[in-house]
Design brief:
Length: 265
């Protein structure tokens, strides 16, 4: 996996003759997470297959296939990829207008995806058509600036008294503890717990926990797990209950979601 870390920890050694550089990375037989690091450039992490999770300045973003996370320059982050992931890593020079865009997940259109892959192939070629690449990069930057954002972030619990709850639910999204359980665990009233969660996230405790679980489900579905396995892992009483919640919150069934991620493959 050392070659993957090399690209994840991209540095000044990359060519300075291009304001955008791109490369394709194929994960091997195991899941991988890079150490915390930051770049002078902006970074776009496009998931072509498999699942990707990025933690950017403490904010957790799930990146399903056919979407990308944007990481502005100098933002400390880690990148986690599932064993079957194929990822396009794009680095954008800090002087471009794109680097003023805040961190987040971007929807990737068919055109944007093809532009990124064309740039990968072009920069990997022995001989480069400089004029063609110039126009390609110009169009690519315009498309990136126009890409709509997607709500694939797990709302952060900022309050210091909620950090144990936050870390446990990130590690164990199937944790069955109710608001009563967590209030007792954190030595506060259930009302106070609900107030602090609402204050940090704008969501009720139950809705916030459901959001954590659904975003975890996206990553597991992208990694190739079945709908039945994901629903069991998250502690749902039945597959149909999981499908109902998934469809209510994301507007489609898990099966349709998985199929939608492979359009254009």
């Amino acid at each position: 996996m050392s070659h993957l870390y090399h690209y994840l920890h991209h540095t000044k050694n990359s060519s300075q003759t291009h304001c955008v550089s791109a490369t394709l990375v194929q994960a091997q037989d195991c899941d991988y997470e890079s150490p915390e690091h930051a770049h002078e450039q902006g970074q776009l992490v496009l998931a072509l297959a498999g699942g990707v999770r990025c933690v950017i300045n403490g904010q957790v973003w799930m990146v399903p296939p056919q979407a990308a996370v944007w990481i502005p320059p100098h933002h400390v982050h880690t990148n986690y990829v599932t064993h079957n992931a194929q990822v396009c890593m794009v680095f954008v020079a800090a002087q471009t207008p794109l680097t003023t865009i805040p961190a987040g997940v971007l929807a990737v259109s068919a055109l944007l995806r093809e532009l990124l892959l064309r740039l990968v192939n072009l920069q990997a070629a022995a001989e480069v058509d400089v004029a063609y690449q110039h126009h390609l990069v110009a169009l690519l930057l315009l498309e990136l600036q126009a890409a709509p954002t997607q709500a694939f972030a797990i709302p952060v619990l900022q309050h210091e008294r909620l950090q144990v709850l936050y870390q446990v639910l990130l590690r164990e999204p199937n944790h069955a503890g109710s608001s009563v359980y967590w209030a007792q665990k954190l030595a506060m009233s259930e009302r106070n717990l609900s107030r602090l969660v609402k204050q940090d996230t704008g969501l009720s405790f139950a809705r916030w926990r459901q959001q954590v679980q659904l975003l975890h489900a996206l990553l597991q579905l992208a990694a190739g797990k079945s709908v039945q396995q994901v629903s069991m892992d998250l502690g749902y009483e039945s597959v149909s209950a999981f499908i109902t919640v998934f469809k209510k919150r994301l507007g489609m069934t898990p099966k349709r979601y998985v199929l939608s991620q492979h359009v254009g493959d």
